[in-house]
Description:
The protein has helices at residues 22-28, 36-47, 54-74, 76-86, 121-126, 128-133, 142-156, 163-181, 186-193; strands spanning 92-94, 97-99, 104-107, 117-118, 137-139. With 199 residues, it is mainly alpha-helical. It has two domains: 22-139, no CATH class; 142-193, no CATH class. The protein has a three-stranded parallel sheet with strand order 4-3-5, with no helix packed on it. A two-stranded antiparallel ribbon has the order 1-2. The longest helix has 21 residues, at 54-74. InterPro entries: Sacsin_chaperone_reg (IPR052972).
Amino acid sequence: xxxxxxxxxxxxxxxxxxxxxxxxxxxxxxxxxxxxxxxxxxxxxxxxxxxxxxxxxxxxxxxxxxxxxxxxxxxxxxxxxxxxxxxxxxxxxxxxxxxxxxxxxxxxxxxxxxxxxxxxxxxxxxxxxxxxxxxxxxxxxxxxxxxxxxxxxxxxxxxxxxxxxxxxxxxxxxxxxxxxxxxxxxxxxxxxxxxxxxx
Length: 199
């Protein structure tokens, strides 16, 4: 799913006819850095393909993240363009799928997929500037957890929920919401989160 052909003569599988001269590399355009727009398009294209080849996707995704992370640190105009393009695009590769930045936080202490995800450590450590720029939160808020409960309620339309959804709701209430508001007074909780039954 590459948008432009790329020659990687450093690959161990590349046999070729020997090293390529600088003049040939220049002629083929191999010495030019791609534009950020092309890298964003590449990232969007790879995100469309969830065909199971996650190592291939991971390699392309990592290369795109690396390029974009460096680009936003060098130029404020580029940063604005990257943020605008990616903010509403599912481009974060988590659990073999691509999700929006609003569904990902740097820290989440329990499993909440397919609604909320924790940023993988390798991305958190290497591309933090990129992800913070597009709105990845440090932790999810009570409102984020409440929206998941609301989504589960709406999806089940007053029918009995599945065991998986029940366990997710339990984790969201006991580990997510309760973990964030246990220090606050009961009046504060009732005033702001009256629709959520708290432990």
